[in-house]
Design brief:
Blueprint: H1 3-9, H2 25-30, H3 35-71, H4 76-110, E1 117-119, E2 122-124
Antiparallel strand pairs: 1-2
Helix pairs in contact: 3-4
């Protein structure tokens, strides 16, 4: 194994770190921070990304269902499939909103901030 690679991995204190996680939340975790500090930094980003992904999934599934509805041409089976896809999209977005409300309730009860969505230059609070 290359000794230069090992020299980059071993820090001055004698601890081993992973250079892949340099500058990320996982690097902070490897610096012997408390687990609560790690989850305090990681959980809001995870929840924010899950909400963004869920919203995008809703719009894509809804659009595909609408296109299938238009393209069904009177075929009852295709129309039912499109209707099921659209109703599944609405059930999914309602579940997303309900989970958002539950997380806001948890934030208010425990006085923590879970839903700070920080996506590069865009900060949503």
């Amino acid at each position: 194994m290359d000794t230069n690679l090992l020299a980059g991995v071993i820090q001055e204190e004698g601890r081993i770190s992973n250079p892949v996680f340099k500058g990320t939340v996982l690097e902070n975790f490897s610096r012997d921070l408390e687990v609560s500090a790690f989850f305090g930094a990681f959980l809001p980003k995870l929840v924010g990304w899950l909400f963004v992904i869920g919203s995008l999934l809703f719009f894509f599934v809804f659009a595909i269902g609408a296109i299938q509805w238009i393209a069904s041409g009177g075929d009852k089976q295709a129309l039912e499939g499109a209707r099921a896809k659209i109703s599944n999209a609405f059930v999914g977005i309602i579940l997303l909103f309900v989970s958002f409300a539950i997380i806001k309730l948890i934030e208010a009860f425990f006085k923590i901030n879970i839903l700070t969505i920080d996506i590069g230059p865009l900060l949503i609070q």
